[in-house]
Design brief:
Strand content: under 5%
Number of strands: 0
Oligomer: single chain
């Protein structure tokens, strides 16, 4: 069965539309939980919950779209994104004994306002794309909105947060947005490609774990602002 972008999302029963919308919107709200908090443990809990929702979304799409390979993707997503990655990040936090964002460039309340504006921008872009593709009024527009919003919020977190753990989670949120959108818009994406993405996430976390140790040893901090001290 060959997946054509937007066709699957454009022909769904009302119950599936409602379920996909609920899971996508809740995933976006969890990104705002991370954006509006200073506590690293809350970041990790929100990311784990977001990953479990995306895993449930994959399984649901597999059921409604008759994509049996998505059941395997759902299990791997729940396992790696929802359990393994949060566990690894929690271990790094315990070793560092850093539990909150200290050197923030923008306050959580201001970050929420900027994040809301980014969502409005993402909705405008998604609506325009949906209209040009003949998908206006379908869940495809919502999927595009959430995908673009999570990517923009991930970039925002990269800019306004300085702790290495926050930076890692920002990248993971960004990737979650891409993954969520692809599940709804292109559910037939090859299984091998999905596995490569999951493996890359483990590599990213491992590399950032090494970076954190290097920062603590040579700069005495787990903030990326300490990288300035290593220049030259």
């Amino acid at each position: 069965m060959t997946a054509v972008p937007g066709i699957f999302a454009a022909h769904l029963p009302p119950l599936a539309n409602a379920l996909f919308s609920l899971l996508a919107i809740t995933s976006l709200l969890l990104a705002f939980v991370m954006l509006g908090s200073r506590w690293l443990n809350e970041y990790i809990i929100a990311f784990a919950a977001q990953s479990w929702l995306i895993a449930l979304l994959s399984a649901t799409i597999g059921f409604y779209g008759n994509y049996p390979e998505l059941y395997g993707i759902a299990i791997l997503t729940a396992l790696f994104r929802g359990l393994v990655l949060p566990y690894l990040l929690s271990r790094i936090i315990r070793r560092l004994e850093v539990d909150r964002e200290i050197h923030e460039r923008l306050s959580p309340s201001s970050s929420l306002v900027v994040g809301a504006l980014l969502v409005v921008f993402a909705f405008a872009v998604a609506t325009h794309l949906g209209a040009s593709l003949g998908l206006a009024g379908t869940v495809a527009v919502l999927a595009l909105t959430v995908m673009l919003s999570l990517k923009l919020i991930g970039f925002l977190m990269l800019v306004v947060r300085s702790e290495v753990i926050s930076q890692v989670l920002a990248i993971l949120v960004l990737e979650n947005g891409i993954f969520l959108g692809s599940q709804i818009l292109v559910p037939g994406m090859p299984l091998l490609l999905e596995l490569v993405i999951l493996f890359d996430l483990l590599v990213v976390v491992a590399c950032f774990g090494v970076l954190v140790r290097y920062l603590v040893v040579h700069a005495g901090t787990s903030s990326t602002l300490g990288l300035r001290r290593l220049i030259g």
